Amino acid sequence: MRVLFVTQYFPPETGAAPARALHLARALLRAGHHVRVVTGLPNHPAGEIRLEYRGMRRSRETVGGVPVERVWLYATPRKTPLTRLWNHLSFALSALPAALSGPRPDVVVASTPPLFHGLTAWLAARVHGAAFVNDCRDDWPHAAIALGEMRPGLVAGVLDGVARFFQGRAARLLVVTPGMRRRLAGRGFEERRLVFLPNGADTEIFRPGDGPGTSAAGRPFTLLYAGTHGLVHGMDALLDAAELLRGENVVFRFVGDGVARDALMRTARERGLSHCTFEPSVAPEALVGLLHEADACVATTRASVFAGETIPVKLFDYLACGCPVVAAVRGDAAAVVEASGGGLVVEPENGAAIAAAVRAVRDDPALRARLAAAGPAFIAREHSRRALGERFVRTLEEVLLEARGRGVTPRPAGAAGVFQRVFDVVVSLAALVLLSPVMLVVAIAIRLDTPGPVLFCQRRIGRGSSEFVLFKFRSMAAGTPDLATHLVEPGRVTVTRVGRFIRRTSLDELPQLWNILRGDMTLVGPRPALYNQHDLVARRQQAGVDALRPGLTGWAQINGRDEIPMERKVAYDHEYLERISPLFDLEILARTALTLFHMRGIR
Length: 603
Prior knowledge:
This protein is an alpha/beta fold. The chain has 21 helices and 18 strands. α2 packs parallel to α3, α7 (236-244) packs across α12 (351-363) and α15 (414-434) packs across α18 (512-518).
């Protein structure tokens, strides 16, 4: 399997996103697959291109055994909405030629946010004929709105539209928290496509030291915060706790970068918190040493409902190293800490609660030892990055298997197959041009008739039982269940006024000419089953009918359409499979015109 991995952040950049991308890519290599990463020139989080990459437009190298192609992007330490937008857009544009070139991938993975290169990766998947998977590390722009970084409005709406566009076309959405999975499911994404793939710790690097931190006489009790200093983390509460612990021989050591760092440093100076020190981000190997030096570690989030559906990645590193944890978190993050037995959970954004927990850990060596012992075993069992990488690989293998279908021998084959494809392209292209005025009138009528989109996009089953998206003009009210007509409860089908007309005249089928031009369908063949018509799909597989490309019309269509039972449909489809020929196709097309004229078998 060949995988193209598109991500804006990759080592030597530090933080959760680069680390996750590297470990997922290395998991593919370990499993014997080929992977190529397209990423930007390293600049995160400082906003300045690293010295060794300055002046470059593109670069190729190997990182941790992974082939990496770096492309230019706009980088600046000035963090404004416009500079961030251009930073994200410039990478998405620069990455496109790199993603479209190189060996043809079987699967394209986009790690988001930022969002715009999700479009780049999706387009590359379309051009290469590859499956598309979105590793959704955060729920933007909804997260930005919840954090107060963005207001609801035009910009947020555009970003949400971008995310929905490529996420709606992803074979799988990898989500990092249960809360994110719940939110996406609530927006209509199918549970089957939502794969829980949490963050974790690299247990080959993050391991326990000689024992839990112990403060020697006269040495301050050291509390370490290591990771992103972001708005979601609510770190002001740590300064409140530091003020309450002033004079109690406790040192707060902040290691990392982020948008909130400068403000935190300024506040600490203004409040005279000399026992709070700030240090820049370090590589994982160096971070392990800092964790072993600490007596305890702290993680925080804000108290909002949204923050309760996030899990700070630093928690996994803390626990893997056997560091007692003070966690001012709620929701999913609190559940992780409590399940691990490696830390104390307190109320977020509450400096007094944090200070009380620090005193409890500092003053009770037995408690520190118990917390330190519990974390590593939990991480090895539940959140080892190696185990999570193996789950990632299995997911991509499953996606590829679905995309390739059952691997049946296509029918018709040889010269007959070539003739059918040429005929499909010529007829569908000519029909799209000639019928474009009719399609425009139908589209306008649908928009004037009822609210909702003009086109109805539906997952259907194609050749080899693989899935594709079928296009039709919408004939029913928005919100009608996505089921076969005979499976919908009585009273739940609401056909619009325009819908009744276009269904009786089969004008609703005209957009499928685009499916034929793309090669998803052919002019004559079995009508494509819905993705959830499992009985029909199974019967067609048993009869060998899934060797055929689905058609705009077919032998079963002119012999009853929706009026005949499933078993009879499959029998007609099998009969067509046995009799397939260009002359038989022309006969079916001619009889289809007569069937439409008499309006038989249409619901």
